[in-house]
Amino acid sequence: xxxxxxxxxxxxxxxxxxxxxxxxxxxxxxxxxxxxxxxxxxxxxxxxxxxxxxxxxxxxxxxxxxxxxxxxxxxxxxxxxxxxxxxxxxxxxxxxxxxxxxxxxxxxxxxxxxxxxxxxxxxxxxxxxxxxxxxxxxxxxxxxxxxxxxxxxxxxxxxxxxxxxxxxxxxxxxxxxxxxxxxxxxxxxx
Length: 190
Hints:
The chain is mainly alpha-helical. Helices cover 76% and strands 0% of the residues.
């Protein structure tokens, strides 16, 4: 039985630096709840908060060698969570700005020229061909999300899956399509 719960944050940081998995587990249990509440105040989406915390703790473990045990562990974790939440907001703002910019372009060019219409049809055919190459369940989830405009929760309910699984499948399909089609086509899926 481990007595890591009796250690101070500094002692746990030293043990973590030495790759002590029990120290990492204790840090996780000690800070997860308070970090969750801290992040939820700014980002009231429980799934997004869980993703942020997972990224923070994975980063902590993967970079344990560079941790300075003399630093305040709690402050380090709070700062990491704050920065991840801010990055989340920045990403959402960039995405919204990009969508708005694209919508403005579409609105200002409502009548495509003949050759542009042909290029659009060719582009759509290329994209649809890549979508059909996705694994069956990933393709189904992606199409339900993008073509049927269903939320992750609605897809999860219909397919009897967890919301996290649906989110991962959509994200993985976007990564695959981004790699296959290149960044110039990726804006179509945002």
